[in-house]
Amino acid sequence: MEEKKESLISDAVDYTGSIADRTTTGGWVSATLILGIEACERFSTMGIIINLVTYLIGTMHLSSATSANIVTTSGGSSFLLCLVGGYVADSFLGRYWTIVISAAIHALGSGILTISTILPQLRPPPCNPALSDKCEKANSLQMGVLYTAIYLNAVGIGGIKSTVSGFGTDQFDQKDKKEKSQMAHFFNRFYFLISAGTLLAVTVLVYIEDDVGRSWGYGICSSAMVVAIFAFLSGTRKYRYKKCVGSPVVQVLRVLAAAMKKRKLEFPSSVGLLYEDASQESRICHTDRFWYVLSLWKLACCFL
């Protein structure tokens, strides 16, 4: 019975909602599946983005400036959407469901892009590059399908990138010395697989897209995400889950709002009169090392 209690992790649950047992959940088995979906995401994303400008110019008959603008805007949007993905994961869905839904959206976007390279109705007719001024540009339907595919990918990337590393660390208990050391190795493998996925994309996939066909290249990207989703789902019973505690961004904004609301209150003469929550180990204890912050705050209040 005592050994059973020691194997329980108080701040994590299993797929049934019960307290997680370190002997049956988490560890490298579940972490490997999480690493796999991140590697496939990077492989698929880079396989599409790295060669997308030439596709927009050569196939969709867009100008170089327009093509570059589309690619950079979608790439920037994917990083900004990481903020949204992190907020949704921390406040509503949790990391597991955010990854599953985002990966499905990513696969859907890649699939739509693959279909657009196969069906002639979804791209303008081919023409001689030497006569580019006479090439028929993509119509509104074709551009609409293209934008849908690209920005579905951006939404999927934002959801995956903001949660996958955090969900990976959830599989290791920082209070256990052995698992804490394994967490460092997890990040080594995490960034190695990101680099490996990128390397395969910019070499093998680019070759396939240029010499075999874009439909094959984009189809491989879509298939990789589908396989990664099923592999990730296969570990549902093995994962450790953390309960949603709310977005840290919201908590910071609440602190700032409370500070502004109470900015004119008088400070107590003794720090012992301040509220201190000693029951939580994560709280920071009182210190006099940052005494100058109080002076700066009083100075700032003079201008408010």
TrEMBL record:
**Which PROSITE patterns does the protein's record reference?**
PTR2_1 (PS01022)
A molecular function annotated in GO for this UniProt entry is: transmembrane transporter activity
InterPro entries, sorted: MFS_trans_sf (IPR036259), POT_fam (IPR000109), PTR2_symporter_CS (IPR018456)
Biological process GO terms, please?
Answer: oligopeptide transport
Which residue windows are transmembrane per the record? 43-62, 68-89, 96-119, 149-169, 190-209, 215-233
Q: Name one GO cellular component term.
A: membrane
- Any idea where this protein resides? Membrane
Q: How does it sit in the membrane?
A: Multi-pass membrane protein
Q: Which UniProt keywords apply?
A: Membrane, Transmembrane, Transmembrane helix
Could you tell me which Pfam families the record lists for this protein?
PTR2
Q: Write out the similarity annotation.
A: Belongs to the major facilitator superfamily. Proton-dependent oligopeptide transporter (POT/PTR) (TC 2.A.17) family.
What is the name attached to this protein's record? Uncharacterized protein
